[in-house]
């Protein structure tokens, strides 16, 4: 198949591109390489896919991979409603995997316009192109943040998600509603994936694992919100990556024209236990600054993944100790030595 992967220089997008490529698919990666976090990490991910930074510093140029003959990359904004249709027309994609988005709950409190541009306008352009160019399946990133203050544990896709507590969550819920409309009106198969705290090698610098590891190695304190009384369904990137490939490769059933899945580890881990796993792998203790709850944050997440198990044989099998070790090993070998 020919697959468009948006957000290709991002954490999950990079891994999805690599997995699709080694499984023989033709892939076009798209990313605007914005400066929400250090762009050098994004360029480093692209280097792993054979794309040199100098070839993608300007918008609109397609670069070919020096490693994979079935991979091309274009730097482009999803909001570019003139250039995006041209890409679809030229490449004739079979499948779209839309992972591009402005991420981060906290950042949305200060930069709301970035979320409307990328997550709403950009997603609308993806839907319009999917309609016009008869895409066989649109798979897109949603988020566990749509559950808001839901107190029913574990979270199920049938739960009411009409009360988002951050603009980021609101845009992700909007994506699900928009996808439903296009599935209903134009028979476009769409699958939304509500990701639960994905972590692992090549992860984002704004995520807790990266921030904590970096601070502890530099003998700096870490901020621990809600006095550490938080729990998260931490989900290892390899488990996420494998099920995304399964979804991309399997033709959606007619009755599944519109689907939403939780993508989690099916368990909740205490934040303090998570920090302890980092400490054990680093051989150092964290200096904790206990902080109050942050606006837009939630106390606990836990995904019910029964539907994903039933439909795709999903089996998350990476526990927190193993996953944290793999991240710390990567961080030591790559990022920390390059600072």
How would you describe this structure to a colleague?
- This is NAD-dependent epimerase.
- InterPro entries: Epimerase_deHydtase, NAD(P)-bd_dom_sf.
- The chain is of the alpha/beta class and 339 residues long.
- The chain has a single domain, classed as NAD(P)-binding Rossmann-like Domain (Rossmann fold), CATH 3.40.50.720.
- It is 40% helix and 17% strand.
- The protein is built from eleven helices and 14 strands.
- The strands form four sheets. It has an eight-stranded mixed sheet with strand order 3-4-2-1-5-6-7-12, with helices on both faces. It has a two-stranded parallel sheet with strand order 8-11.
- Strand 6, helix 6 and strand 7 form a beta-alpha-beta unit.
- Helix 7 crosses helix 9, helix 7 crosses helix 11 and helix 9 packs across helix 11.
- The longest helix has 21 residues.
- It is globular and about 55 Å long.
- The N and C termini lie far apart (39 Å).
- The mean pLDDT is 94.
């Amino acid at each position: 198949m020919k697959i468009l992967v948006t957000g290709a220089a991002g954490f999950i997008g990079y891994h999805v591109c690599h997995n699709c490529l080694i499984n023989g698919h033709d892939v076009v990666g798209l990313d605007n390489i914005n400066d929400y976090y250090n762009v050098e990490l994004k360029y480093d991910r692209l280097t792993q896919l054979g794309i040199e930074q100098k070839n993608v510093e300007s918008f609109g140029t397609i670069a070919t991979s020096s490693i994979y003959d079935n991979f091309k990359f274009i730097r482009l904004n999803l909001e570019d409603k003139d250039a995006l249709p041209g890409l679809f027309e030229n490449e004739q994609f079979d499948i779209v995997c839309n992972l591009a988005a402005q991420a981060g709950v906290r950042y949305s409190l200060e930069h709301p316009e970035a979320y409307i541009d990328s997550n709403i306008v950009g997603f609308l352009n993806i839907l319009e192109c999917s309609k016009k160019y008869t895409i066989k399946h649109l798979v897109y990133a949603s988020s566990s943040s749509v559950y808001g203050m839901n107190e029913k544990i574990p979270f199920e896709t049938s739960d009411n998600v009409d009360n988002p507590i951050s603009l980021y969550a609101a845009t992700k819920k909007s994506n699900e509603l928009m996808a439903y409309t296009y599935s209903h009106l134009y028979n476009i198969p769409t699958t939304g994936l509500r990701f639960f705290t994905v972590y692992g090698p090549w992860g984002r610098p704004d995520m807790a694992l990266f921030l904590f590891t970096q601070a502890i190695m530099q003998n700096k304190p870490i901020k621990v919100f809600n006095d550490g009384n938080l729990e998260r369904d931490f989900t290892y990137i390899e488990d996420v990556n494998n099920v995304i490939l399964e979804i991309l490769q399997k033709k959606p059933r007619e009755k599944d024209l519109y689907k939403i899945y939780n993508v989690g580890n099916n368990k909740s881990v205490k934040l303090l236990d998570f920090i302890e796993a980092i400490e054990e792998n680093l051989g150092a203790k964290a200096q904790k600054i206990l902080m109050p709850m942050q606006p837009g944050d939630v106390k606990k997440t836990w995904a019910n993944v029964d539907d994903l198990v039933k439909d795709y044989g999903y089996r998350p099998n990476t526990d927190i100790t193993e996953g944290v070790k793999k991240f710390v090993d990567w961080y030591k070998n790559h990022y920390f030595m390059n600072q």
